[in-house]
Amino acid sequence: MYVKLVSQDPELYKLCRESLAEIPGRNWNISAIASQADDDGSDLWLWDYHPAMVLPEFCTHSPSKHLFLVHRKDLAGFRGRVSAETHILLKPVTRATLAAFLGLAVSAHDDRTSIANSLRADRDEILQCLIQTNLKLQEYDQDRTTFLARAVHDFRAPLTAISGYCGLLLGEPLGPLTENQREVLRRMQHSTKRLSRMAGAMFQLSVGRHVKLRPDLQRGDIRECLGQALHEITPFADDKAIAITADLGPCDHPLYFEAGQIEQVLINVLDNACKFAPRAGTIELRGYPYFWDRRATKSSLPLAAERRHRTVPEPNTYRIDIRDSGSAIPAEHIDHIFEEYTSYAGRDRSGGGLGLAISRMIITQHDGRVWAENTELGPMFSIVLPVHRSGAIHTVEQVQKTA
Fold it and tell me: How far apart are CA 185 and CA 180, in angstroms?
């Protein structure tokens, strides 16, 4: 199956490739161009729409072959230019929504290349109804996200004030405190900071869909980040008598990252481990240089456009494994725990759908990867960060200008 993306956004191209790679048992080839005037026979067209875009006439010939990504503010004008059967996704598009639509398009392509189906017309009509319903749901979701972002922004201010007052009292300028009073204030301050981090994660997830965030990459020491994360998480571990061990090997090359964000990732994953480790359980951390093959197994990107290709697998990232002694993550959920608002069987490995989701977003912005797997000794979360500075988000020159 040949997919053509009409866009100049390399991040959208990357998202499309990742979404297609999640479709099992399908062979595909995707390429990106800046504009297109004629139909070259591609099976599926993805249009990164903007009001100044010139829409070729062939777009209206086979609406099922075309999917338009449109900002909500441009939706009314766009609808005036195309037929009612046109497939639309609202920008900024999410990975889950895009993967669902691409999977549907791939299945439809398989149907078209097989024996004709006498119920195809009915199926297409039902499909169109579902697409229109999905579009409305996307609009409602954007309204909900906007409200949530505003509410969380207002929620963070009083939390910051409470944390500040706790710090003021702990400094004892207003009078001496007993040891019990200091311990209560420390716990209050710690809980307030935790709530503030959760509010920040909610805000970042809400804003992250609409604003392309770029981390401020600086050369840093990952061990300092881990030390701060362990300091933040120790009270929770002590409450459950959880033993934490850390073994971080030296990194042969410098790491570039935004320290505050990587600390947040480590805190989120450690907090998750503390939650699921049993009382008197264990959490083990290990860090070491690691070779990560960034190429997707189904990638159609030319080799020259990949970030780096080596015949010898020398370490190109630094990897951190965080393993807890909790029960295994159900196999049917392990690939979804990094999605927002994900939980299973009344338990929530994703921290309200926020902790792991925000961690994946941060690591992706750092051009790395985070994932989970079950091991014989318990669930393990792994993080890889590039050891070389290539920019906040790597840009691959895959957008080709047409003559």
Answer: 9
